[in-house]
Design a protein that fits this description.
211 residues; alpha/beta; Rossmann fold; five-stranded parallel beta sheet; 12 helices
Length: 211
Amino acid sequence: MKNDQIKNIIFDLGDVILNIDVPIASRSFADLSGREQSEILTIFKESEIFRHFETGLMDEPSFRNYVREILDFPDLSDEAIDTAWNSLLLDLPPERVELLKKLAAKYRIFLLSNTSSIHITQVNKILKASTGVERLEDLFETVFLSYEMGLMKPDPRIYQQVLEQAGLKAEETLFLDDNADNIRSAAGLGIETIHVQKPVTILEYLKDYAV
């Protein structure tokens, strides 16, 4: 049901705008290194490599070098690492971009994503191939990315920073995310939330806002 107080809409990226399949990345690294997927998942979890990369504690060369180190695979190429890491990024349905354009005529719209620079480069390629739109910044008033902010959802500080930087009131702001922890954290600040759960998409969740 539409909340008539809403003036601003903040979107997550993965599985909200862009379809993703996170386990594909660990399978890709398993195939590259000749290890079991379960072992890859354990290595990545213990090293916290993706949290470090997605909060900006590592740049791209440091990330790639650390992948080589923890997989004990010094000859792994930059391209192979990037391809494996990006393999979880699937398609971006054009109708979702059309929805964003409609909403932008009535609301201030923003993106807030836990992500890395390698992913964003690839997402922009997918976006252009699918819709002709050059980059995410062309669709949103501001694109807030975890690796640039030094914070990750569900840390409440990341939502507070978005509200303050954009000059938004929590009660006038709607946030859509596929992660329940992220939704709870935003709701705790008084932000209106929608927990996006497949197979339902933003086309259905936001149909009343787009008319």
